[in-house]
Design goal:
Radius of gyration: 13 Å
Shape: globular
Number of strands: 7
Strand order of the largest sheet: 4-7-6
Order of helices and strands: EEEHEEHEE
Length: about 90
């Protein structure tokens, strides 16, 4: 998964769900599913200008919006801009 600017391997099994520890973790989930979780966790409206719905593997922390957004966009090279509660994500 993508975290803190690098790709990390992690075992698939955990004794307790990640959300208990304040993170939503995805394994090959549709990008739009991860975006939906970002919107839900942070009360954002995300406007996308991207092609397709690539698979997303990574984590979205529930208490660090900057890290959450970076985890979503960096693996794909997407750009983003936030104004208030609206987050725009686009392909370069």
């Amino acid at each position: 998964f993508w975290k803190d600017g690098q790709f990390n391997k992690q075992a698939n099994y955990r004794e307790r769900p990640d959300w208990i520890d304040g993170e939503s973790v995805f394994n090959e989930a549709p990008f739009l599913q991860a975006i939906g979780e970002l919107e839900r966790q942070y009360g954002l409206k995300v406007v996308l200008d991207i092609t397709g719905n690539p698979p997303f593997t990574g984590g979205i922390p529930h208490n660090e919006i900057q890290t959450a957004v970076d985890n979503l966009v960096e693996p794909y090279g997407y750009r983003y801009q936030q104004e208030g509660n609206t987050l725009r994500i686009w392909e370069p």
